[in-house]
Amino acid sequence: MILVFALVLFVKFAHTAIPKDNKSSKKDGKEITVPFTYLDTENHDIDLLFSYEDTSMDVLLDNQRLIEFPRKGVVMEAMEVKEGLLLLHQDFFSGKLSFFLVSGDGHILSDNRFPDSLGDHLLKGLFGDENNFYVMLYNPLSCENYLHKFTREKDAITYHPEFVIEIPFGVEDDIDTNFMLEKGASSEFICGEHDCYSFQLQEEKLEHIHSDNKASLLEIKYIGRDLWALCLNDTEAENSFLLKNLSTGESRTIETVGIPYKLSEKNGKPYLSNASNAERLLEVFLLDMSKMNRSGLMNLGINNYEGRVAWSQVDYLNGFIDILSNNQNITEDFSLFSGIKDELKTRLDIEMYMLDKLLDEEKAGMISKRYSVNREPEKYGVHTARLLYTFKRYENEVENAIPITNYERLLKEVTTL
User: What is the β-pairing status of strands 205-211 and 65-67?
Assistant: First the structure.
């Protein structure tokens, strides 16, 4: 694990399952498929198409039906429901959330905005059934995660403010944690890095089932009647891996010369693949990418209210720049990523373009609320400087970088803050 993580400086990733092929492509010469997004459902292929022309991001359903939205933003979660899809959408920069009900042939049936009281909350997960939807949101005021309930009646979706359940994860499961969801027989498992909960769907009851601050959860899988986990032992001088039954507490050390990954079921028992060559290590990297927040979108198109542009987005973007850089002083061997450099470049370009657009927003820009008294909007020199550094590296080290129109303005702002 350490080997793969060290290959991309600044990037903090988790584990996950095998992703789909994410080749970049253009539609009608104007829209570009956003690489490294993971929205597919059991019966539908879902791609995001980005347009530089009008800063829109549409959905391409099953490679043939285009879904355009009334507000500029991005679909972060997709779930199959009766006769269609439920799409969880976030407006660019404002962060406002909405549910769109979409028919099987791609027509929007209803546009259902979240209440203003959830305006600054950050999405951490979505699950449910045909008529009951549970959204896991991070509350920046309490710095805790909560489950919120929505119900469907025909094409209308209703929020239930009386139903809010706190999920009390430990301090290590913070704002940047990529939480894992796994469906059980009659429950949904919700796991962070060290704690795991079971939410009984019928009784709507939350139960704490696992806690271990000595081993980090990397992957979870419901097999038979038990929840299994691939874990990283945090107490060893050299990293070792554990296979743990979270339902019974039993665990065993995994003896391997490579990196175990892709926890799955084989003949009714847990099975792990092993990465011991370059091809498999690239698979592990892509698996990590697909487990990122917001279905792999991470922080694309967000604001900096919670400092996530400054303290999360610029970190992984600098990792992308390291891989693509023409800087001769970077001595790390990134040949492992040669087969996905085009996709990384496309994704990097889109994120840089959106950060440039963020600076045009009067109410957003690089303003943060997280670090001030009473969440008063403030701008911090360290935030703008980190973004400026990333812009500079991008323009100087990445071939065919798109122009950053706000670079000079940001440079002046950094020197005067």
Answer: unpaired
In terms of Cβ atoms closer than 10 Å to its own Cβ (0-12, 13-18, 19+), residue 331 is: exposed
Which residues in 28-115 belong to E strands, given as ranges? 31-33, 46-51, 56-61, 65-67, 73-81, 84-91, 97-103, 108-113
- Give the residue among 74, 36, 35 at the shortest CA–CA distance from 58: 74
Q: CA 105 → CA 12, 156, 332, distances in Å?
A: 38, 18, 47
Residue bearing tokens 């129109």? 405
Q: How far apart are CA 261 and CA 221, in angstroms?
A: 12
Buried b (16+ CB within 10 A) or exposed e, 306-318: bbbbbbbbbbbbb
Place of tokens 């909405």: 98
Extract the tokens encoding 79. 């779930």
For residue 156, give the 3-state DSSP assignment. Answer: strand
Enumerate the β-bridge partners of residue 215.
233
Q: Do residues 272 and 262 touch, judged by C-beta distance below 8 A?
A: yes
State whether residue 100 is helix, strand or coil.
Answer: strand
Select from 128, 190, 181, 134 the least CA-distant residue to 160.
134
pLDDT of residue 16: 30
- Average of per-residue pLDDT across 344-351: 98
**Model-level pTM greater than 0.85?**
yes
The interaxial angle of helices 381-397 and 341-358, nearest 10 deg, is 140
The residue behind tokens 């999920």 is 167
Sheet (strand 122-128) strand order: 122-128, 132-139, 144-153, 156-167
Structural domains in the chain plus CATH codes: 2-290 (2.130.10), 308-416 (no CATH)
The span from the CA of 384 to the CA of 168, in Å, is 33
Q: How far apart are CA 60 and CA 15, in angstroms?
A: 27
CA dist 372 and 270 (Å) reads 47
- For residue 252, what are the β-bridge partners? 243
The pLDDT tens digits of the residues spanning 12-43 come to 333 333 333 433 343 445 799 999 999 999 99
